[in-house]
Predict the 3D structure of the following.
Amino acid sequence: EKDIRFTVYINHRFCWKETNIGKAYGEKWAAMYEPGKYGYHGAEGDQWLACFYEPSAWAEYIANTCGRIIEETGMDGIYLDELPLTYPCYNPGHTHYQKDKFPVSYELMTQHIIDARNAIVNKKSEAVLMTEHAGSDYFSQFFDGSWSQTFWQEGFPFAEKYYDGNSLNYFRFCFPEFKLAEYGESSDQVRRCFFNGIGRMGGLGKAGQVLKENGDAFASLNPEPLIETKIKQILANKFPTSTKIVYTVYNKSNKPTIGEMLEVEPKMGYHYIELLNDNQIVPKQSGKKDSLSFEINANEVVCIGQFPELINLEQVENRLSISLKQPLANTMLIVFSDIDTSDTGTGEGKKIELRDGKVELDVVQTFGHKGKVILKLLQGETLVDEVVAEIR
């Protein structure tokens, strides 16, 4: 009813002993993680841990189950937990082991992942298959997305110490068709996910709202990591679309920084907004580039959008005359006073109805006071322009 997407969680190994499948096939399909010893998870003996390599067995059952769930429920996808970790299987009764005398089959793992995804998309073409791990660049081509756990502090405490030079997960930029979200708490998690333009288990607050409203840019198949900046410890990524460009900027120093930080290609009829704090940026000409000056706190990330100027704004005392420079279908104008609270769910933004692309707004009458006014033009859920006014 809320138009939210849902996926179903399935652990790709677990087969409880007292289920119909467990009783009929559990022992036959089960994996031996050591020669002669069946694997277990948690308490020994409460379940079979099935093998995902054996043809015409458990993996086929999982694929059929995935397709059935999508067909019966209309869900948007399946999450297969613990895939594609290659758990060993030494079961001497399995054809995969008899054939290769090796406990892992990358070829069969790949084929069975493909079968599961095909079963899903055959029932619903836009449905997705997600797993717990990307596995590798090789495995990731066979499904749609996964968690990234590289920086999970509890699970991998060494990662941030030895691997976190730029807080950047390059996998997202090398394989942009593959969708990552981060799992596992760490001190830098929210900032890193915001900077990389990926999701996070647990939410991102205002940064998440910026990601959502600019999902067209953050889903770009042509993201550019670590573009040139004018200050050494200021990092920046670029997420382009045909209509707007979004930059994430990370201050990796331990002090607030203000001044010229980015030089970007100018576009006629475009302007710049810092989206996290909703501030307009007036560019300075630097040769053939626009030089952008702004402020960013120590160890913080901000986001800058280069937008086409679609909203025309004229101010006379407390009144704003608002008009669109061109007609746009399925648009909605939302106005906030002082701060954008759309990430809190409090509904404090005012939806303003445009008649023939125009509206008059008395700020004091609408909000009860003067101050900063943020006007956001959305097309569906996508931000297409934003302007900021100060009523004094």
